[in-house]
Structures are given as C-alpha cells and as structure tokens.
Amino acid sequence: MKSISFLTFIGLLLLFSACEDETINNMEDINDQWTETNAENQELMEHIQQIMFKYNAHSYQYTGPENGEGQGVVVLLDARKKPIKGVPNQDLNRMASALTSLRIIQKNMAQLQDVDEIFTVVEEQPKPKNGMGPYFQYIAQNLKYPEQARKMGIEGKVYVEFVVNDFGEITDVKVLKGIGAGCDEAAKKVVENSAPWQPGRQKGQAVKVRMVLPITFKLDNEAS
Predict the structure, then answer these.
(1) Reported pTM
(2) Sign of the Cα pseudo-torsion (95, 97, 100, 103, in order)
(3) Fold assignment, 119-217
(4) CA-to-CA distance for 121 and 129, rounded, in angstroms?
(5) pLDDT per residue over 22-73, tens digit each?
(6) What is the DSSP string of 1-36?
(7) Strands 127-128 and 197-198: what pairing?
(8) What are the residue ranges spanned by the domains of the chain?
C-alpha cells in the first residue's frame, strides 16, 4: 500500500536547532544595523540642533520629497512662528539635506523594527494545543499523496514555512523547498488548514513566530 510518512517532533526540533545559529546571526546583524542607523540618526539630529541654536530658531518648516530624492526646503522660525531673515542659503541647504537624510534613516529604522516583530527562536516555542502526537495524526489523516506523484514515483521532503501569530493562528504559509508533482500544494494545504496552535512567548508575551515543518512523502509498495 502506498502511504505518506512525515518527520517526528524530534526531527522538527533538530531542524530548529540547525536553524538556530543562522537565526542568531541574523538577529545580531539586525542589532548591528539598528545601532549603526541609530548613531547616524543622533548625529543628524545634533547637526540640526546646532544650526537652530546658531540662529536662535524655535522651530522650522520643512518641505521635502516623500521618497527622499531631491533637495528639501527649510525655513527657520522664531518664537512667534515668523520666518527668520538673513539665514545663509548654505546653512539652510545643509539643514534641508540633514532632514532629508533623517527621513530616510527613520524609515529604515521602522523597517528594522518590522523585521524584529516576527521571531524565529523564542523562549517558548509555539506548539499545537493538543500536542505534537495528535498533530501528526491530523497530518497523516488529511495529507493525500497526489496521483501525479504516485505515477511518477516521486518521493522526498517538502519544507513548509509558516507563521504562528500572537493569537496562535497559522498564517503566511509557503513552500520553502518542494519536490513538485502536486506534493508542494498538498503539504501547504494541510498546514493552512491546521487548527490554531498555542502561540510562542518571549519574556512572557505572546509573539509571532516563524516556523518550518518538513513533511516527507514516501511511497510504500508493501501490502498492508
């Protein structure tokens, strides 16, 4: 009888362990980028404050391109919100350039924060509410060997990536590495239809966690 087998929970943990070093390296890269970007941000802020202090400006008006391309325009304002006259164009252009760069940097910092919202390794990993045993039974009962793959004799592992969000819902399901012949779609579908899990936790808070589930398709021609 032809059947489908899949990796056990131990195999799944081994995969996460193998990915842990790469994940830590990625997190360190993100932290390094954050530190460097934040330093640039502070340097630009100080440059802007120096120019404002030089002309006793209380505030400013800045008009600049949303995409960061081109030169913005700055007007320094006094305590009555009136434009300060006699400020050299050289200083105004320097401040406009700093503000344009600052806008780009702050956008990059926001993107780094977005990257950090989805974890890969957390203190408490997500898990099915009824445990891994019943979850694998669910896979065995609902994952079907595609007829095309049977006829072609295709076997192998399909690696399915998904995110368990902070409510335990399975989202953003996609195939990282597949074997084709309908197996990729079958593996993706069975994960998409999974019941909600217990969410992962970091420092006691429920967080989004990206996970990878390897599912093995294997033909068994022995009689049952």
Answers:
(1) 0.50
(2) negative
(3) TolA/TonB C-terminal domain (3.30.2420)
(4) 19
(5) 444 444 554 555 556 556 666 777 778 888 888 888 888 888 765 545 667 8
(6) --------HHHHHHHHHHHHHHHHHHHHHHHHHHHH
(7) antiparallel
(8) 30-116, 119-217
